[in-house]
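Lab notebook, bench 4. Still working through the backlog of constructs that have no structural model yet. Next entry is a single chain of 727 residues. Request: give me the structure tokens for it.
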Amino acid sequence: MNLTWKIQPKARPGYTIVEGNAEMKTVCLILGMAATLCGQVSTGNAKRIHGRDVAETAPSDTNVLCWDAGAGTWKPCAAGSGGIGDVTGGSGLTTPGVIPMVDTTIGKLTDTKLSCAGGVCTLYDATPSTGASTLVVRAGAGQSTANLQEWKNAAGTVIASLDNTGMMAGSFSLDGSYSSLTRSGTAASLFSDGGYTSIQLGSSSAPLIKINGATSAFPAIKRNGTGIDFRLADDSAYAPIAASNMLGQRVGLSLDYVDEDTVSISAGGCVTTGGTALSYAGGNITFASLDTGARVLGNDYAVFLTAAGPKITLISVYHAGGLVPATYTSANTCLLGYFHNGKSVNNANALGAIFEYSVTSNDKLNRTYPYRGVKDLAAGIPLPGMVKVGNLAIGIYKASHEDATPTAAGSTSYPVSRYGVVPWVSIQGWDAMQVAAQTGNRLPTWAEWLASVQFYPGSVTGARMNGNTDYGSSSDGGESLSAPGAATVGVSTGPGLTGAYYYKITLVNANGETMAGTASTVVNPSNETVNLTAIPTGAVDTTARNIYRTAAGGSTYKFLHQLADNSTTVWDDVLPDVSLGAGAPVFNTTGLQYATNDPSCNCGRSLLGTGPRTAVWSSTMTGRSWYSPAGIADPVGNLWEFVTQFFGGLKTSGPGGYVAWGSEGDGMWNIDGQSYNPDTSGWTNGLPSMLYVGGSWYDGSLAGVRSGGAGGSPGGAFGHVGFRLAR
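Model written out:
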């Protein structure tokens, strides 16, 4: 017997009966051994939920059922496309509660939960795998006394936070490492790999900088109350640095050349030895910022940073109270450097020009004797009165005594490089090397001297300056006069002179006077008049001739009489010996190139740096500059200059002879394997000679950039040889 029954489900509170068609299937019930009871039941295929239709659309994996109000049906939709909106129509979570979170990628609940109570909401994961497990957010009054946000680990320890002042503390993952920021008063790592290495910043009670590392030599740098010190792994002090050691230091504030009137200063700051911090945003400075005196040709000037900004001050040879003005001390100013204000090219500015290669950034300067180097001043840094060419600092001018003036050579043992003073001569090569060291300098080598003097930016050939020689060239505006020959002497009836006498003649022009010419034959009057005839005349520019005579039986020629023309050829002499004047000139000063005579010997040398400076350096034949392109004055002609080059001489025609070499006939004076020995007043075979370079005033066209003399022992001192400082 087949039976059909109907199963009536029982409704439960909160549930709605699902209606729909039923697929009928046979179900049998075995009743003991004798009978089997079978019937049909239906399996649900829901068409409506709560009286609302369900769409026929097939769902996809992880879809959920949602209500489409527009279509009036239930339909499949992606999980998470909806979400929990604002809680409205009620008072929200009025009592502590927990909301489980759904992983929207799988549409399932997770272990992450949100709970709120007392103005504090916590988002936590009950089973974190690593890192923070809990995020706490505070609102309301609790913010004033506790962190606004906190990140905690599984043990409940705060590992990062945002406090009530907005400061962050703790560690955050950045590309596999950790970085950390800390609130004031709490030390924390700035960078850390979670292991040995970290850098830590903190307050005054904690390390300023702490480096923890298995291989760190100095794991920490700490403030020690008076400065900072490096700490070892056991926190013991090592290599402390006192705060006083940071005084007088600067960052930036470098000087650079802009033009002949302007120097630039880079941005930076400094701390005076008095503890005052000064800063400057950077910019240009001119002589409008000169704080003392006026701009004067040939002076050196210092640049300071003061509380009122950058200032320029004069550098003098000696400052009893420090650099001018004396109120500028290391306690209230920062010395930035200095520069030289020398001759401008073509004399374009009578007040001078800032020399480009003299602009020096240096705060180590002897404030009492600025031209003497301090002991720890590095090689290659110029002193005042110097320029820098490559790695070498070299004097703009030939060396002079520190106390030299325009009229006297001076006598101190300290050589300096200064404008417009009498140069230092008649010094042995040995001594020149020694006194140079007293001011922190040395003599240049020949290679250094050549490289500096010939330095010519933008040219493939070296500079070739002219110089102060005993005769000029047509390109320089005029020839010098040559010393004349001898006059003829005889006697006539007196009264007059008695004794043995000699006479010499000189020629005079608008520039100066020649050296004394050829001596006459001896004349022996006996209370007689000496008659001079055939007195030589000079070239067309000769304006006068001077007659010089010895005293009776003497050998020194002294001034006797001037013939104020270039035509008279006879003159009678009866002047007594006591009326003779000054001695005959030693050097020829008639050449146009001489400029100002050196008052120490009236020898026609230009005082240091006073010759012309032009932009013509092409050759000795056409150039008219007594300065090199780098601003080095008088490298040719003024004086020979000792350099630290020693050798035994090259073969020439004989002792003291010379050969022309290089271009344009520059002379090289060498000895036939010999050198002049001042101890024997003769030539000694194999004696090392000390080279001097550049040529002197009486070497004429043979003087030049590449001229050199190897005839003198370093123990010799010569009136026509000086030296130049380098470092």
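Notes after review: The chain is about 5% helix and 35% strand. The mean pLDDT is 77. Flag for follow-up if needed.
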